[in-house]
């Protein structure tokens, strides 16, 4: 499948799949979307010092890198697990402009490390941030009561509806701790109903630029 580097409306890059008319991040602003959906609606909801996070769709590493930057500011310790069945190529990573757009030149080594560390093995990228990249299909996830927070950042349901089913969200519900939350950019009614069917309490929130709404689900 053809893949292209695209500049989104906030100046940050993403990977575009023209055959699907799909991007790894919003074409209305990759960095803006990451902060709005995953940091503000997710990460910032946890006051505790230690947070365990599961990312569904590690992709470009943007969400993990921004989480690192915000955790460093807030003096939090992060145990991060990113699941990705089809890792992004090294050549594509080199073309992404997240370091310059985030003015994070001092942390270039961290971003690089997130991508070069071995798969399926927990690695420390700093004193307070460990990452485990798992090369795995989402339906293979078997974690139980493991995570405070889930970033659900799979490709959209129009192209991969099998990733937005009750089966997948049941695995998310099992993987997350009591009072944990899942955040996603999607606001589709079918997605909301699938989450509710497996036990999540779901709320609609204002969406990032270009989207009216997003969803946040809580395991009570």
Can you tell me about this structure?
It is a single chain. The protein is an alpha/beta fold. The chain has helices at 30-40, 62-74, 90-93, 98-101, 108-116, 166-175, 189-197, and strands at residues 4-7, 13-17, 22-23, 50-56, 77-83, 123-126, 129-134, 147-152, 176-184, 201-206, 213-218. It has a single domain, classed as Vaccinia Virus protein VP39 (Rossmann fold), CATH 3.40.50. The strands form 2 sheets. The protein has an 8-stranded mixed beta sheet with strand order 6-7-5-4-8-9-11-10. The protein is globular. The model has no long low-confidence stretch (mean pLDDT 97).
What's this model, at a glance?
The protein is an alpha/beta fold and 220 residues long. The protein has 7 helices and 11 strands. The chain is 27% helix and 28% strand.
Largest sheet geometry: 8 strands, mixed
Percentage of residues in DSSP E strands: 25-35%
Q: From the alpha-carbon coordinates, what is the Rg to the nearest angstrom?
A: 16 Å
Number of strands: 11
Give me the side-by-side strand order of the main sheet: 6-7-5-4-8-9-11-10
Q: Low-confidence runs (pLDDT<50, min 5 residues)?
A: none
Which fold name fills CATH's third level, the topology? Rossmann fold
CATH class descriptor name: Alpha Beta
Q: Tell me, rounded to a whole number, the average pLDDT.
A: 97
Would you identify the CATH architecture? 3-Layer(aba) Sandwich
Q: What is the percent of helical residues?
A: 25-40%
Number of helices: 7
Quick one: CATH superfamily?
Vaccinia Virus protein VP39
Measured between the Cα atoms of the first and last residue, the distance is 41 Å
From the spread of the alpha carbons, the general shape counts as globular
What structural class do helix, strand and pairing data support? alpha/beta
Overall number of domains: 1
- The arrangement of helices and strands along the chain is EEEHEHEHHHEEEHEHEE
């Amino acid at each position: 499948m053809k893949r292209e580097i695209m500049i989104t409306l906030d100046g940050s890059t993403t990977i575009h799949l023209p055959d699907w008319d799909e991007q790894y991040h919003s074409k209305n602003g990759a960095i803006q979307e990451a902060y709005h959906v995953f940091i503000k609606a997710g990460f910032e909801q946890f006051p505790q010092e230690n947070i365990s996070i599961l990312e569904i769709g590690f992709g470009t590493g943007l969400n993990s890198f921004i989480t690192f930057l915000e955790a460093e500011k807030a003096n939090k310790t992060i145990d991060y697990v990113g699941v990705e069945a089809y890792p992004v190529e090294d050549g594509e990573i080199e073309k992404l402009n997240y370091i310059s757009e985030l003015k994070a030149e001092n942390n270039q080594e961290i971003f690089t490390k997130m991508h070069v560390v071995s798969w399926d093995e927990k690695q420390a990228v700093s004193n307070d941030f460990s990452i485990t990249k798992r090369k795995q299909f989402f339906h293979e996830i078997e974690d139980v009561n493991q995570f405070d927070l889930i970033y659900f950042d799979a490709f959209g349901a129009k192209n991969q509806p099998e990733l937005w089913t009750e089966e997948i969200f049941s695995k998310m519900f099992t993987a997350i701790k009591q009072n944990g939350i899942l955040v996603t950019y999607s606001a589709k009614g079918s997605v909301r109903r699938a989450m509710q069917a497996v036990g999540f309490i779901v709320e609609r929130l204002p969406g990032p630029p270009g989207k009216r709404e997003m969803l946040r689900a809580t395991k009570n």
